Amino acid sequence: SIRLLRLMPLENESTEGAEIQCELLEYSLQDPNKGTHLYEALSYTWGSSEKPRSVSIKGQNLAVTENLYTALLRLRDRSFERIIWIDAVCINQENLKEQGHQVQLMAEIYSKAIRVLVWLGETADNSDTAMERIRIAAENESTDSLNNKIIQQAIFALLQRPWFRRIWVLQEVAAARHILIICGSIEIDGYAFCLGVNRFYEARPDLESLIRSIIYLIRGAIFRPKHVMSSLGRASLNIRPLGELIDMFHTHEATKPVDKVYALLGMSSDNPNTANLLPDYEVIWEKLFENLIKFLLCNQVFVKTRGNEGRAVIKSRGCVLGQVLSIKSDDRDNVNITFRNMPKLLGCKKEFHALWTLQASAKHIREGDIVCLLQGALKPMIIRPCKDYFIIIRIAASPEGKSTKSGDIEWAKLLRLIKVFPRDFLLIWDWENSPEKLQDLGEYETLIRTTNWVSEHSKTELGDHLDKATRTWNVAMVLDDLEEYQKAEGRLQEAMEGYKVAFGVEHPHPPKSQYGRTPLSHEAVIKLLLKTGKVEIDFKNESGRTPLSLVAGGGYEAVVKLLLETSNVEINSKDESGQTPLSWAARRGHHAVVKLLLGTGNVEIDSKDKNGRTPLIWAITRGHKAVVKLLLGTG
User: Fold this and answer.
1) Which of 308, 319, 363, 631 sits 20 to 30 Å CA-CA off 200?
2) Would residue 504 be called left, alpha or beta, if left means φ above 0 and alpha means ψ between -120 and 50 degrees?
3) Is 154:127 a contact under the CB 8 Å cutoff?
C-alpha cells in the first residue's frame, strides 16, 4: 500500500494565503479491476533543500520546500478536495528502508494515476506568454509568432527550468497516461505542449538536443495502455535496457548520486534483482556504481570509483571491432561503421560496413570513435582515445538498424562467436563532464595512477614511468588494429620514450647515448613488458603465430632467450601452417636461435608442418648448412 495526500479546499475565498490543510490516507494499488485510479501524481523539483514553509496534516505541521508549497497553493481548489501523491509528503523521508521500498513502486504509482501534474514553477520571465504561444503553435501549426525574439527568449527560459533537467521526472512522465503541464496560472495538455515545442525547434534547433528525450516521453503518454507491466514482483515500464537508459540520461540531475540509477530502474527492461541494484538508500554510491558497471559489462572487469564522484576507471581485456566513419543525428543516431578488425577475429578476410541506428545519448558520437567489445560483455561499447586511456561514449550500444550491403546481421549471435580478446583497455566513464572537457582534466591522472597496470611498482618512480608507457603502448595496439598506422606509430614512439625513462630510473648509472638518454634495445623493452605481468606470452595473431614464433623467425636471439627464461612459453606451439618456432628459425637460417631452442631439451625436432616438412627439411631446402649440422647433432 501507499499513502495519498488529501488536499483540503480553501474554506474562505478571501484568505488565499490561509494555512494549507491536508490529511494522509492509506491506499492500496492492488485492485486488479482498475486501470487508472482516482488520484493525481505530482511531478516537480524539490529545489533548495531548505524547508522554510509548512503544511498542516491533521493539526501537525510538516516542513516543506518553497517550491512544493507554491505548488500546493496553486493546486488547492476552492470547493473540492484533491487527492494527490507527492513523494516528499507520502514517503517518510526519515526512514531509508521505506524510501527504498517506495521508490520501487514509483513506476506503478505514476502509471495508475488518473493524471500526472507537472509543476514547472511560478510565473517568471514571461512564462505566461511562452505557455500561451506554445499552445497557439500546437493549435495553428504556425511558427510565425515564434520568430519574435522576445517570444523565443521566453520559451527558451521556460524550457531551461530545472524540471527539464531532473532525472526522476523521466520515469514520472514515462509512466504517465495523461499529463497536464502547469506553470503559474497557465495549464496545457502534455501532448499539445509537445506539439507546440516541436514547432519551436524550427526557430531554435539548438534546443532540441537539450529536451528531446523528455518531450518524446511526454508525447507518448496518451498512447500508453492503462496498466503497467509487472515482472518478477516489480513494476516495470520496460522501455529500454538499463545500459541504454544510462547512456541516454546520466547527465540529468539528482539530489543524491544513487538516484541517477534508481530513477531509471522503473523504466528498464532488465531485472535489477540479479545485480544488487534494487533501491537501498543504505548502500553508498561507490558500491552502487561498481555494481552497476559490473552488471552492464561483467563481474570480471576491474572497477575503481572515488567518493560521490560520477566517474570510474575500468580495466578489462577486449577486442577492437571497428570505427565510426560518419554519423547523422535527428531523434536517433544513424552511425556508419567500418569493421576492419572484426573479420580477423572471426577468421574472415574482408572488412565490411554497417549502419547502426541508436537512441540519441547524452554524449555525442563522432567520426573516428572506436567500437570495441570487452571480454564477458554482451554488448559493444563506443570509446574515444584520449592520451594513454580511452573515454567511454556509450557503454552499451544496441543497434536497432542492422543493415549491411550483404543484408541484415544478427549482432548478438555474431558477437558471441568472438573468443579472442587480445587488447588491454583502460577506460574512463565520466557522468559529470562532456568528452570535450576530459582531455584537460589533470585529476584523471591521479585516479589512473591508483589503478596501475604494474601494481608491484606502483609506489616507485619506475612504476609511474613504466605504467604510463605500457598504457600508451596498449592504445597504440588498438590504433594498429584499426589500421591507423601513423597514429599508432606516434603512440609507440611515446611508449618507447617512456620505457627508456623507466629503464634509466631502474639502472641509475647506465651508459648514455650521445643524446643523453639511455639506449634501449628490443630485449630491454621486452624485459620491461614481461615485468608488468600483463603480457599474454602465448597470444596468437591472425596467422596463429606466438611472440616466440615471431622473434625466432626474426632471429632476435636475446628476446628468444628472455622468453625461454620465463619457463611459461609454449615452445612447440604451431601456427596455421603447422610450423613451430624451431621451424621458422631453421627456415630462416638463425643458427644462434636454433641452438637456444635445442638447448631447452623440450623442443620437438621432428615436428612436421601441414606440408610434411620438418625443421631439418626447411634448413636443407634453404641451404643453411650450419643449421643442418646443428640439427643433425654434428655442429
Assistant:
1) 363
2) alpha
3) yes
Backbone angles phi, psi at 560, to 5 degrees: -55, -45
At the topology level, CATH places domain 537-635 in 1.25.40
Q: What is the DSSP string of 493-551?
A: HHHHHHHHHHHHHHSSSPPP-TTSS----HHHHHHHHHHHT---TT---TTS--HHHHH
Question: Considering only CA atoms, which of 338, 305, 311, 342 is closest in space to residue 324?
Answer: 338
Alpha-carbon Rg for the chain, nearest whole angstrom, is: 32
Amino acid, single-letter form, for residue 363: K
Angle between helices 581-588 and 547-554 (to 10 degrees): 10
The answer to whether the CB of 251 falls within 8 A of the CB of 278 is no
Among 109, 87, 108, 110, residue whose Cα is nearest residue 98: 87
Q: What are 376-416's pLDDT values in tens digits? A: 999 999 999 988 899 999 999 987 645 555 556 778 888 88
For range 574-594, the mean pLDDT: 93
Q: Would you say 522 and 537 are in contact if contact means Cβ atoms under 8 Å apart?
A: no
Q: Indicate the domain borders of the chain.
A: 2-223, 230-436, 452-533, 537-635
| Of residues 380, 371, 373, the one with CA closest to residue 398 | 380
What is the pTM assigned to this prediction? 0.75
Residues 6+ apart with CB under 8 A from 214: 164, 169, 170, 173
- Percentage of the chain exceeding pLDDT 90: 46
- Residues in Cβ contact with 50 at an 8 Å cutoff, skipping those fewer than 6 apart: 65, 66
